[in-house]
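Q: I'm teaching a short session on how sequence maps to structure, and I want students to see two examples side by side rather than one. Could you give me a first protein with its sequence written out and its structure tokens following it? Keep the formatting plain so it prints cleanly on a handout.
A: Of course. Example one:
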Amino acid sequence: MWDFIQDELFGMKWLNRLIGSLLKACGLDTESKLGGSLQFFIYDTIKIMMLLGFLIFVITFIQSYFPPERTKKILGRFHGIGANCIAALLGTVTPFCSCSSIPLFMGFTSAGLPLGVTFSFLISSPMVDLGSLVLLMSIFGWKVAVIYVIVGLVIAVTGGSLIEKLHLEDQVEEFIRNGRSIDTPQNELTNRDRMKYAWEQVAETARKVLPYIIAGVGIGAIIHNWIPEEWIVNVLGTGNPFGVILASVCGIPMYADIFGCIPIAEALVAKGANLGVVIAFLMGVITLSLPSMIMLKKAIKSKLLGIFIAICTVGIIFVGYFFNLIQNYII
């Protein structure tokens, strides 16, 4: 039963078979490089967009119960590492990319929440969300997905706690520290309002991420059918002990969310790349993308930004090697 759920519900293997049959009916050989690439492209694009619509709707509906003002009140009730844990968990029901999370981080910091707590939220929000859980489950199985979420939350809690211990409040830009968050009354939404809001977010997010999904699936199709397997194995396989570090660094200049990265990850693993290398690449892209760091630099000073990048990078590299060690046991 679980294999059926994994393969047919999350993985949508039925869709891949359907597309293959349609392409063969059109006279295209799906075993050829061109046919295989086209099948991969159509299948992954449709699958990711379908999962995207479902996930955005569910997450936005849940998120409607946690507007910024309510989230600040919830976080304000906790102290110490408990507050970091709650902030990391709340990050799982927020927007998918780090650029969307940074304005929330600024608002929480201006509201006077502890700096470490806000950084736990900032790390968790793009790195660990319900989208990553379902998408990773659809490609690599539930074990990889669950472990990914757990280690991501550990990085968020540990990173936020460490920043809190370093007392770096003076490294936040003055306009953020001196800002005053005004609590505005939140009108209680009806279920109909929440569903309408969720559908609007589905349409808006789909328009925003579609170009990245198409680009990611296109790159994945090229890797999957045109790049020789031995190239991937030599650079990102077991023969290169620095593959995790290389993947982490290569992911930083990119700007994408997990929806655009998943097809690349899927193709790399199919070609023989180590799972830890691919996980490190995913985390690097969605957590430390260059555009996000440029945006964050407007809110915090260089020292704090450097510490944040260092903490995330070390955590990502550690997670990458950890997944390499347990790869044979979980996939």
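Q: Perfect. Now a second example for contrast.
A: Example two:
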Amino acid sequence: MQQKLKQHLWLWLVWLAGFYAVWLYLVIGLGYWPEAKAHWPIAVAMAIGSYAAGSTPMGGGTVGFPVLVLLFEQPATLGRDFSFAVQAIGMTSASIFILARRQPIAWAMLKGAMLGSLIGTPLGIWLIAPYIPGLWIKLVFAVVWASFGLLHLYRLNEIAGHSGMTEFNEKWDFNVGCWLGLGAGAAVAAVTGVGIDMVLYTALVLLCRTDLKIAIPTSVIIMAFTSVLGVIVKNLSTGMQPGVFENWLAAAPVVALGAPLGVYIVALIGRKPTLLVVAFLCVLQFFWTLYSERASLGLSGMLLSTLAVGICLLGFEHLRRWGAKLVGYRSENAAVERHVVNDTNTVTSQTSGVK
């Protein structure tokens, strides 16, 4: 097995060498080192963010967005575009590492999500994101991530206890993934720069009862795909926000190694400790957002934001119950099929005996 891993990890090493060659050309050959050096704080923050990106279903923007927007008080649009840009390196690096290690992936649902994202993300960038005010971008991020964190704080043992994956049929998985990718790409990723990975992951663990060893690598790959797509679409049409490139120069060499490191380390120490820490940070950033925007939101705005978190949690619970019903139906059908097969075998053996 180790020999097989070594035969494929060279692909990741080639990618890594190519990326660092390009980065060195930018900072040394084209003289961008002063810009990269001046933005060292985001590189420090992304050392943590990239580890979370590779070891959890939360993209690197989960740390990059609140650090830039809440801590450094940069525009939410900058946080969104930076998330796309930095994940295009970190999550891609982690994805190549995952594929090189031949980790199990929920391929049918992933392929559907990629097709949905291919359509939904550009549509969201062109038709939705430009009309979302900066405050709303912050709140969408805060609400979605807080509800996701709370889900893990009270359902982690159940989620971590899943083994394998409940596969209904490839066509069903593909169609579900397609609709999820379309909706999350347009309404979440295009607005915040992150989130489609969390949506797909949630469907896998709540609807399909998928093992974390399958669900998290699958979520990493869809975020890498969507981030690269987002960078391409924005550069060819709307353009990236000022300041993204300078922050990217500082953070990119960190996340290129940090995200795959998260993939590797979490396989040694388990996923539950990391998920608990990141879930706590997701909830913390929600209260941080409400506090920093209290003047704009007022009491009514803060209450509505809290209500939105509750609605998301109800949606998660509905998805969980739906998944339980689907698993039950599948088990019943499998039992009926086994019974039919056994009856057929019995009749066949009796017929053979008569002859």
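Q: What should students look for in example two?
A: Point them to this: Residues 2-326 form one domain. Also worth mentioning: Confidence is low (pLDDT under 50) at residues 334-344.
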